[in-house]
Write a structure and sequence with these properties.
129 residues, alpha+beta, YdfO-like fold, six-stranded antiparallel sheet, 4 helices
């Protein structure tokens, strides 16, 4: 079973979106099978085998998620983040402004899927391996 401390240690190596694929590899090694990150306050729920789950506390004060989804702006901000142009707090703020409420990472499918407040899928992408 993995712990939030182990996940924090893996996450401490992430400086920008460019580091995301290596982070996913580290989480897979720990036994994480899926996780959901909530933009409102940055908490994340992690899931593993045998119905194991654990959650991190909020990462920052609550922020308002736009009820209007701007998929094109989000994709542009995501690309900038993946190229190392923004840090994680900036990316989370960009998500909120663009109407992204959460993202779900599936280790089995190696995908990251972004959702709006209504629970509609806005964008899904394959995670480079």
């Amino acid at each position: 079973m993995f712990t939030i401390e182990q996940i924090k240690s893996a996450h401490s190596k992430v400086k920008s979106g460019a580091d995301f694929p290596a982070y996913i590899g580290d989480l897979k090694t720990l036994g994480v099978t899926q996780y959901e990150t909530f933009v409102e306050d940055g908490h994340t729920s992690y899931f593993g085998n045998d119905n194991y789950s654990t959650s991190s506390p909020a990462g920052y004060p609550p922020q308002v998620i736009s009820t209007e989804t701007d998929a094109e702006n989000f994709k542009a901000r995501l690309k900038a983040h993946q190229q190392g142009q923004t840090d994680y707090p900036t990316f989370c703020n960009d998500c909120a402004i663009s109407g992204i409420a959460k993202w779900v990472v599936s280790m089995a499918a190696m995908t990251c899927t972004y959702y709006n407040l209504a629970g509609h899928e806005i964008f899904a992408e394959a995670i480079p391996q």
